[in-house]
Structures
1.
Amino acid sequence: MCLYDKRSTMKRNLKEWIEACRQGDIVSDDPDLLSDERVTRELMRQWDRVPETRDESLDPIKRIVWNRISGQLSLQKAQVRMRLYRRLCVAASLFIVLLGGYAFLQKPEESVRCEFSTGNQDKREVLLSDGTRVILGPNSRFGYPERFGSDERRVVLDGQAFFQVAPNSSAPFSVDVDGVQVTALGTSFEIFVPTDRHCVETILRTGKVRIDHPSADGSATESHVLLPGRRLTFDRTTRNTTVEPIDAVRYTEWISDTGQSFKNERLQFILPRLERWYGVEIRPDEGVLGRGDRFTFKITDESLDHILNLIQSSSGIKWQKDASGCLYWLY
């Protein structure tokens, strides 16, 4: 028998084998595959690719063909499953990212907080995420969130700072100063706390602010609305509040000046700011503060000793300091 006739015979036997598998007379690795006409066509196509052979046995060739087809179909199934798995992974990842972004946007306030401080004769400016401009005075600390929430803007201050608040009626801007809260809506103001923290001063240049502080007996919270050109002072010891008219622009000139300027000011106003500027403690006698002397001068890079000598020469108020240079007495 020639090779062509032998191959034709093998092909007829293969068709018979396929039909037997369909009828259940032969058990295959995956009988369901043979129920599809596409499998039959693929099986015959693979058969045509089998090399010519002189082997009289058809079974090994049938098994080779079947293994090739079964393996190819299994690979195709695996590839389909892998593509589907990858698509599901991408969809799940995208869902997680979107869900995380939604949760982030719903946070009332970003958890990351920032803080910066200043030293002697130092000033620093920071622009907050909402556009609010803050100028921090000497020897002061300021804390704020990296990003504000949608319904409030809260910061913390210890020392001196000037605020130029960006308007946002849906998110009030408030400054916490050790139990005293100053709330503003689109305004510019200064807060000053002496180093001994016995009081909190708020000076309003523009707009309107509300100051909330403990009541006299400490059982409740009292509120005061401050108008431009006014200074409110809350005394922590007596818990009394005083409001007085001032030249707010002149009192806040330090934000644009290279130093500190005082024009016809009393020592009650000057000494706490000298303490902040130089990072020292100044203890005046009661008689010194009661004299009513007023002074006009400007500080740039002069030493505190030089400034106190000027005060002494113009008023007769004497001073001395301890060995460390951190404590001064006026008498």
2.
Amino acid sequence: MKSPWSLLLLLAGTIHSARADVRVLPLSLDGLVYNKANGQFYGGVIEGVNVNTIIPIDPVTATTGRAVNLNSTPSRLLISNDGRYVYNVVAEKNQIRRYDTQTETAELQWTVGAGLYVQDLVAVPGSPGSIIVSRSNANSSPRHHDIVIYDNGVMRTTAEEAGGADHLEIKEDGSELYGYLSSSSAFDFSTWDYSSTGLSNRRVVHPFA
């Protein structure tokens, strides 16, 4: 288990003063995301009283909200662009649990496949229920397996398997996906066009060729 770390909050109302007030919240987190829609942070708690929960944090008052049980230790968090959902990678990276910031409930949970694990994931801009996930297989070499798209927990029928990437980023308007494959000696950097039908037109750059 990762070593716990505390969250330091610099209160917004004091940053222009000669002395900034710093408050410490003794939270053991593995993952922290910020919601621009409501000004709250959300953290995945891995130790302590609220272990295996997601907890909202108010950075202005340095207080926490209601912790919601995820039934498993979170290892990575991703927030949708509109702030509606926080996706939590749980069950030793084999499952994803979705938390609704409006209802403050943990709802959808699904596995990413037998023997498969989450390497990285990104939110699809303009589609809060959709995420793109890079999956790995611990029993293969290289470990990277494929890239898939989930819509409200349901995987689309097509997957990108040719090379792929284990580190993902998506263009702000959602039109392109960028990926880097670190688990292969080729170290490919790839881009894909993204649309409602999925990924297409892969372009590969070999930065160390």
3.
Amino acid sequence: MLGGLFLLMLILIELNGGIGIGTKFGTVVLEKVSPGGTYNLRQLRGVPYIVLNNGNGEIEVEIQVIPPNDPKEGYEPILDPSWLRIEPNRLKLKPGEEFPCTLILSIPDDKNLIGKHYHAYIRAQIVGEDLYGAAVVNNFFFSIGTEGPEAVKKAKAKKLLKELNFDVDPNMLFLKVKAGKVVNVFKELKKSFKILNKGRRKLKLRIKSVKNTMRYPLLEGYEFTPDINFIWAKPEIVKVKGYRIIDAKLFLKIPEEYSGKKFMFIIAVSPYEKEFSLVQLFVRVYVEVE
């Protein structure tokens, strides 16, 4: 089933000398168009591409489909501008006159195009000596055999989110370290917290010291670390196979000037994928510095 979004807007360009051009069209997003299919936007959605002369002199307009040099994220430039036709693509307009053109999208019958997302510019440009260059550009997006990139991304994120099933244990560690030296917590103190992957899917996780944005209360005698970089995980990025448990490897180095202090650190464990970065589990690490 063909889906999409049509945002109608009026765009006007006016030059010195009372010469002007505009369009009533805006942005079109078509989804689930089929290989081999032909789509007349005017017939399907009642959406004409209207060009208007908002100046005080007659103009001649040429309309072209152009692959963008910098397409919108998730899209690639239209492979062949001939896929999108404008009828007519050249016209003359008197002052104040407007003309509804027809846009026809024709997709080659090639199943390899399924899953592709394309971006095209539709440019209406005044032609004529000393006038060539004044133009109005509209965006046209279409996805073949699938929803648009944003919808696909959200669906993927929703599916992956259901598969994120991990935990940390314990969620608090108590350490005593000497100031001024690097301490391998796992090797030297025989302490760590475990990351448990309770699901089937292999997880890629980030372990990182963070600020106390969760506002965990401090235990008596402790203060939050003056520098979250006093503690770190190595490796910071870990992979945990389904139904497996690993130990997080923490390292500490607290400057000698903080000898006698007691600090709290917050370690966040979160999926590496950017879209899930807000899914976090926290471990509080209480450190007594000798």
